[in-house]
UniProtKB/TrEMBL annotation:
SUPFAM superfamilies: GroES-like, NAD(P)-binding Rossmann-fold domains
Stated name of the protein: Alcohol dehydrogenase
Cofactor dependence: Zn(2+)
UniProt xrefs under InterPro entries: ADH-like_C, ADH-like_N, ADH_Zn_CS, ER, GroES-like_sf, NAD(P)-bd_dom_sf, Zn_alcohol_dh
PROSITE patterns in alphabetical order: ADH_ZINC (PS00059)
Keywords, alphabetical: Metal-binding, Oxidoreductase, Zinc
Keyword Kinase carried by entry: no
Domain of life: Bacteria
Every Enoyl reductase (ER) domain range: 5-330
A family per Pfam: ADH_zinc_N
Length: 333
């Protein structure tokens, strides 16, 4: 099989590897589609992912495909089944797992982060991390269930109700999914702040009541009840806190570099009684995310802006930040 192997920081090459054999509780997936996540870019540039990365590694934690082989103890799946993968593997024994906060597992493992993932033609995955998808769902949509699951967990962190005013900071892939989820919850108005005005049209098509630039946003004096930051940059996080109104909630969802710092005035948190929350991965939200896509509540296809082949990945990962990608997908035959 061919796979794009990250051998060191900034060093990715397509290699021939042996097709893995399943352990007794694993299945082998012939990968049909794999998303390129911002976390993949972080790892490529030498920053941490959801867990510590050791080279060499095949990245790709957003994936879907077809079952080609099952381990001897697997009974839920058979050859030919179509599956979407939840990459996160919890130990079940640490304090966080035992307190039902598995996503904070002290021994977290993840497909495409600590073990080989979807940037290869075949992938070994624990059967417990595989979810069936219908024939009506494309493999590209199936690969995008994982980030939608992360969005769902983010929404569990905030108190959003029908009629809640929402600001989404960042009109990229995650921001546009956050926008759609806010619509599902009946939020109004929903404003998307995005400096690239070419993305405003898509935000409006997906249900934003208004799309503005950060400079235009600064002219808003009312503030918002919920602010969802989806960028992870100093200036966008600071603006997110600034734009929350009294009693507001700020969800810092965008993944910042580990050394990023932001300035906050504690008096603002005190006087406005603000709540600031984080959100980490997607604890057991995969099934809900599949349902949202299958029922047409969340649109995935309009967000897929670039399609790549496995052989292109060394140059794609090198130049990714210059390609103006909303979401990139690796397609397999």
């Amino acid at each position: 099989m061919k796979a794009a192997v990250l051998t060191n920081k900034l060093e990715l090459e397509v290699k021939e590897l042996s097709i893995p054999s399943p352990l007794e509780d694993e299945i082998i997936v012939k990968v049909k589609a794999c998303g390129i996540c911002g976390t993949d870019q972080h790892i490529y540039h030498g920053q941490p992912g959801s867990a510590a990365v050791e080279y060499p590694i095949v990245l790709g934690h957003e994936l879907a495909g077809e079952v080609v082989e099952v381990g001897e103890r697997v009974t839920k799946f058979k050859r030919g089944d179509r599956v979407s993968i939840d990459p996160n593997i919890y130990c079940g024994e640490c304090m966080y797992c035992q307190r039902n906060r598995q996503h904070l597992c002290e021994n977290l493992q993840a497909v495409g982060v600590t073990r080989d993932g979807g940037m290869g033609e075949y992938c070994a995955v624990p059967s417990a991390n595989c979810y069936p998808i219908s024939d009506e769902m494309s493999f590209e949509e199936g690969a995008m269930i994982e980030p939608l699951g992360c969005v769902l967990h983010g929404f569990s962190q905030i108190n959003i109700q029908p009629g809640t005013s929402v600001l989404v900071v960042g009109g990229g892939y995650i921001g546009l999914m956050m926008l759609q989820m806010a619509k599902v919850y009946g939020a109004f108005p929903i404003i998307v702040s995005e400096p690239d005005q070419t993305k405003h049209k898509l935000a409006l098509q997906l249900g934003a009541d208004e799309a503005v630039t950060p400079e235009q946003l600064d002219q808003n004096t009312e503030g918002f009840e919920i602010v969802i930051e989806c960028v992870g940059r100093k200036e966008s996080m600071e603006q997110a806190v600034k734009m929350a109104k009294k009693g507001g909630e700020i969800l810092l969802f965008g993944v910042s570099a580990p050394d990023t710092k932001m300035e906050i005035h504690p008096f603002d948190i005190f006087s406005k009684e603000l709540s600031i929350k984080g959100s980490f991965i997607n604890p057991y939200t995969h099934e809900q995310a599949i349902a949202l896509v299958e029922k047409g509540k969340i649109q995935i296809k309009p967000l897929l802006s670039h399609y790549f082949k496995l052989e292109e990945l060394p140059s794609v990962m090198r130049d990714y930040r210059q390609k103006n990608v909303i979401k990139g997908i690796i397609q397999y035959s």
